[in-house]
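Input set for joint prediction.
Command: fold jointly, output tokens.
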Amino acid sequence: MGGRAFAIVALMLVVAVLVVSSVLDNQYFYFAGYVVLQYVVLATAWNILGGYTGYVNFGTPAFFALGAYTAVVLIQSLTAPLPIQLVAGAIVSGLLGLALGYLTLRLRGVFFSIATLALAVVLQTMFVNWDYTGGARGITLARPATAPLFDSYVQFLFVVMLGLAVLAVATAWWIERSWIGRGLAAIRDNEEAAECMGVPTLRLKLVATTVSGALMGLAGAPFPYYVTFVEPTSVFDLNYAVNSLAMPMIGGSTTWIGPVIGAVLLGTAQQIATVTISSALNLLLVGLILVAFVILAPEGIVGLVQRLARRSRA
Amino acid sequence: MVALDLLLNALAAGILLGGFYAAVSLGIAVAFGLLDVVNIAHPVFVMLGAYVTYIMNVRFGLDPILTGLLFTPVFYVLGVVLYRVYYMSFERKGAESLRGLVFFFGILFIVEVSLLLAFGVDYRMVEASYIGKTFQIGPVGIAFRLLVPCVIGMALTGALYLFLSRTFYGRAIQAVAQDSFALRLMGANPFRVKGIAFGLAIATAALAGALLVMIGPVEPAMNREYIGRVFAVAVLGGMGSIGGTLVAALILGIAESLTSTFYGPSWSVAVSFGVLLLALAVRPSGLFGR
Amino acid sequence: MSAETLLEVQGVTKRFGGFQALGAVDLRVRQGERFGLIGPNGSGKTTLINCISGTLRADAGRIVFAGHDITALPAYRRTRLGISRTFQIPKPFVSMTVLQNLLIPVEYAGRRHGGAMLDEAMGILELMGLATKARVSSAALTQIEMRKLELARAMAARPRLLVSDEAMAGLSSTEVDDILTILFELNKRGITIIMIEHIMRAVMRFSERIAVLDAGEKIAEGRPDEILADARVEKAYLGE
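tokens >
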């Protein structure tokens, strides 16, 4: 999809969402919509490193939570406005991605993945022990009294997350079509050959982990104002780990639209399901669907659609 | 001399813990070290073993160790079946390790959440006559709940070592990673050998799980703490060397115990992460692509 | 033919744990030369190539290419300097077409962009006889087509030195001649070529000079006729 087409479609979608939301004007819609959009960002961010480059990050909660806690620290210390929280969340999580990458990306991909698992556990331990951000008991935060431009603050956060989703998807779209994206694909297909063909594999991988981490931190930064009560268990929830991985894998991991499809489908389904089934059962279903897709339809929904299109053409 | 007492007790507890960690890590030493299968779901199978032990203990009053031994064949079959699925879906097609990793993550997830649905988040524990006792050697207190798992863990390690070095299939397992063609010439089918190896790896989880629930109460999310530990041990131990696994497990146990005693128990989880990173940094170059 | 040295390998040693794969190997390849590298299986040929291309870091020794000491350079930098190689077992970028496979080195090693990229890549494909397969997925090629793609990809990096690692293994007689013709043509265009092969008639025909490795050491070096007559070489291949 060319640049102009993408921009037009994005703009149309944004306008459509805004119109629908102001017509509905339902607080629950904003709450639920925020979560779905948050997953669009997380899934897209995960996929830049996972689907594009071939390195699996099991520790999305670490980057997401770091973004959220950075915001908490800024709120507590400076009552910093949201834009600063966003930028800071992105920078801190981006740096975490860079550091982790630097430590582990010279080795086999599996060690990076294992390190991400361990990283999430370690970070959670850190925040459980840090009283300034509430420790194990958590911390309550007050939202700003008035929301800029909109009636309710939740509606405002919804629109902010919409903007972040557009930013994340646009970033993935740009990377995919650029020389960086081609290099990442070569790394994914065969890293040894890519290196011998002149691709600076370590540098590109570091770019991918940094961008991926930064976007995840970006998704986490508005979270404190959204929930108003931040505690480690909910911020490091396994939900984030499995969903940010399942949504791109189910949607299709080689292109920017796969994570979006996965996030919208799975995210909406889960929002509807939480009122009827327990969250644990919900997670179990996600896990089962993930394994089914990985075994039977590894290219995801996008891949299936492409296969059908090819068959109808032939 | 309070500090010395503390130190000695921490060391003793660390050694005992290390013996247990060896038992938990054996499965990864085989699956990852020898077969190159990144089974991050191994610790959750240990949890499964722990819960099975719990049920047998609560419903039928069965001794934990007995349960562990009893269920070893069941877990073995589970392992063989799991390997078949993995092989058919990923290894045979030569698909990138990305999908294999995601597959095992999915399995981990499914088992953990199933345990959560079945047992909830409350901690579960077992009762056995010998668990509560302790005895003293001078200033050092030895708790049976640590001693028994350590001894059994070491016995299991020794048994696996003998199996791998003295039996035909054991040696075949050691060979299969390096040269499946030569293995075929020896008359062994590589696929079958790998299936046996993976079955063995999961089988150890049954007994390791029984030991785990002896040491302390369990809850489903605990498996994630152990992922860092078992891979730290496997890497530090030299990937597939059983003796190395034991030594590495002892080192980790001692490091964790010391950290826990002097800096607080919640930081012991970070120790395995640190050990893992250190082990990865210290490994000789040429690690890329193995 | 210029007698200027293009590649100099000095005392390169490589160990894997307790096993010594290369023991202080010296090699000198001249500009524009056709150089053969032979030896029994496991003698260290591919390990040596890996050390030259940068896939592996040598434990001891020096490697000098066109006057630059490249011993500590990562592989991608060496490619940009002008060293290119094929892989014994072809490693195509399977999610890409044949043409896209070539665009990677053209873009990253050759530093061309835009329309010029495509022209260059298509030119190489025509030389290799793969032009008709340009839009075909690289996962759907035959054996010899994959070998040619390996060579085409290596060429797309605009090398001064090309290392062909057993490009002919397992091919039919006609296919071997096919590859040989391509290699001769590339050499004619000024590219220095190191050929690793087991197919003796190809190596003997192609090489101006040959080096023989055995158990990680260079046991002989010279013209093809000298190598054929060398008793040590015969012993290495056939035993006592």
